[in-house]
Amino acid sequence: MYKEFFGFEEEPFRLTPDPEFFYSSEEHDDAIKTIEYAINSRKGIIVLVGDVGVGKTTLSRVLLDKLISTQVSLVLNPFLSESEILKYVAKDFGLSIENKDKGEIFQDLVDYFVRLYKSNNNALIIVDEAQHLSFESMEMLRQISNIEMENAKLVQILLVGQSELINRLNQDKLRQIRQRVAYWVYLKGLNFEETKGYIEFRVSQALRYKRSVFSDRSIKYIYKLTKGNPREINQISEMSLIFAAARNSKKVYPKDVILAAKEYYKFDKKRLLRLGLAGIFR
User: Fold this and answer.
1) Which has the closest alpha carbon to 220: 177, 259, 258?
2) Non-local CB neighbours of 196 within 8 Å, separated by 6+ positions
């Protein structure tokens, strides 16, 4: 309903990781540049961490569009066993795994990475939600990361996960993989100016032209509620649009954000108290 009312060609605040709707804050831009440099320089293992909803998955998809001469395996299921993750990666790179044991598959990967290197190409494995990887799967990735020549890592590995991933890697039994991490990249929420830019950017992308839909005060309310977490910004903003459209208003005002927050946080009153915003619901 609100999409047609406001004239959006697409939903501006959908949660799927769409690079077209990626708003690159200074922090996100620095993260992409750091990871891109680490991959192109063949640094080995890179870790990208951040709280739920800060944009890690979207950032990794944007990164894929920037890489050239790089073959990528994207592991979206962190619950694969040691053997399954080896087979998945090999198959993702286009290698045959039929009737082959682990040793044969691993050697095929070695040969494949060497061929890529000799043809001036690179290999990258991205593991999403990496905090859920088992010790055995982590160990398999470490062994894969050891595929190298004297002067170059033949495969780069990007571990993407929530903050718990740091605690996992700090465990003594994982020290060997921790010691091989070349870069640690941390993502935080947006500040107020970035939140304002984020909302206005996504609205403009969905409209295909620039127009102010959210009032400045409504954006301030959204920032106070979400603390700049992009996923929560999306959810509160979309619900605010729905309430504004229901009032037949072409602009989102604080009253719409308040109604959206009431709906979104209705099972989390303690959250509102912690944010010091309970008063806006009187």
Assistant:
1) 258
2) 216, 219, 223
Q: What is the chain's alpha carbon radius of gyration, rounded to the nearest angstrom? A: 22
Confidence label for 282 from pLDDT (cuts 50, 70 and 90): very low
H or E element, residue 45: strand 45-50
Q: All domains of the chain, ordered by start, with CATH? A: 2-6+191-266 (1.10.8.60), 26-187 (3.40.50.300)
What stretch of H or E contains 160?
Answer: strand 156-161
How do beta strands 45-50 and 181-187 pair?
Answer: parallel
Question: Residue 189 burial (CB < 10 Å; 0-12/13-18/19+)?
Answer: buried
Q: Using alpha carbons, select from 35, 89, 43 the residue that is nearest to residue 59.
A: 35
Q: What are residue 46's DSSP bridge partners?
A: 158, 183
Task: Name the pTM for this structure.
Answer: 0.88
For residue range 227-264, what is the model confidence (pLDDT) as tens digits?
999 999 999 999 999 999 999 999 999 999 989 988 88
Phi first, then psi: what are they for 177, rounded to 5°?
Answer: -75, -35
Return d(Cα 230, Cα 227) in angstroms, integer. 9
Cα(138)–Cα(82) distance, rounded to whole angstroms?
A: 8
